[in-house]
Amino acid sequence: MEQITSLQNKWVKYIKSLEQKKYREREKVFLLEGIRLLEEALEISWPLKIVAYSSKLLDSSRGKELFRSLEEKAIPLVQLTEEVLEKISDTQTPQGILAVACQREYSWESFNSSHLLLVLVDGVQDPGNLGTIIRTADAAGAHGVLLTKGTVDLYSPKTIRSTMGSLFHLPIIRVEDLHQCLAELKARQVKIIVGDLAAQEYCFQEDYNQSIAICVGNEGSGPSQILKEKADKLVKIPMSGLAESLNVGIAAGILLYEANRQRVTEIPL
Q1: pTM greater than 0.85 (yes/no)
Q2: What residues contact residue 70 under an 8 Å CB cut-off, 6+ apart?
Q3: Is 3.30.1330.30 the CATH classification of the domain at 3-102?
Q4: Does domain 108-263 have CATH number 3.40.1280.10?
Q5: Tens-digit pLDDT profile for residues 30-74
Q6: Pick from 262, 178, 240, 263: which is nearest to 215 by CA?
């Protein structure tokens, strides 16, 4: 395989362009970087358009095994010099591999449980926070995540890395119309529980052992007014110290694990 040495190569320019959201949306793809994320993608046969690698990937036995798996699955491969791959990488210490993966579109039918646990993310702006929420939802046994229109891009490289592969494990729907989304939840008899600092009741007083959607809002302004108006219950997290608020990812984790505690009959020891 001929090694690509120029930043003007068509594949290099294509991959570089996908750093911008408008091109990711147009092509319906996103970037995956690093050995672990590629291993996760291959394990569940996530569709990959092309994989770029450098000789650095083959320096480790794990990297060699990943390369063999890519070849066996006949996934298109291009070899770049280390210098070229570093130029198009979004990480400080590239591991020698970067892929263009296809976006997946999910529908409400993807949530195939009669005892739903969903997370609705409303206007969260930090990609690290969104990735943490998705990862925590996955760990807590949620069936899916809903993202409102004002939420940070699901497919930004920083969000993808922050999910630590949980992006591959559960359906994520990007919501265009919040009113319609809330109506759909109501129609499916999903209880809407909104985390809000001004709530009267604490989160641990609520019943989560039914179909529910846990809703968390923007880091600065909290949940939108429509969410608070349409909520079946507003809940707050006890704050015993002097901090005014919690990080939204931490708050989502507390609510999710209270739901997990109530819904799981046997806690693994």
Answers
A1: yes
A2: 38, 42, 51, 77
A3: yes
A4: yes
A5: 999 999 999 999 999 999 999 999 999 999 999 999 999 999 999
A6: 178
